[in-house]
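Sample 3 of the quickstart, ligand protoporphyrin IX containing FE:
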Amino acid sequence: MAQRKFTRKEIAERNNKNDAVFIIDNNVFDVTKFLDEHPGGHEVLLGVAGKDATEDFNDVGHSLDAKELMVKYKIGTLVDEDRVEVKKQSVTWTVKDEGEKESSFVSSWKFPVLLGILVTVLYTYLFS
Ligand code: HEM
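Result:
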């Protein structure tokens, strides 16, 4: 299928079940024929039709199979002016702070407790 360039403005109008198009990572997908086949249902696809669905798509954590399937529905890309930088899929750890808090909590009680046990054992052996 011939691939062409689209503006975000023209995609915005293609937001219904007879013409459902969205953007993922600056690529444009026409999912009109896929609506009834999508394992996640047609509602979610229609919900993002006409829009940039990158975040929603990534939030679901689609499988490799899904990503391969997408190729079939790609109809083009965004014009240069409308492109955004594609964020590398990185595993960001938003609970990092909590993790750090936990580990400092662990070391803050484990160390004195272990020291206490060690001293008790030594004391028992040395002075009994
Ligand atoms: C051309 C684009 C898309 C393709 C080819 C696609 C394909 C698939 C496939 C194959 C699955 C089954 C699970 C898996 O293999 O990951 C799935 C599930 C799902 N998809 Fe998509 N999808 C697309 C776009 C989207 C978008 C834009 C959204 C959100 C707005 C979405 C939301 C979901 C949800 C909610 C599920 C169900 C997840 C679950 O049951 O755990 N999908 N999709």
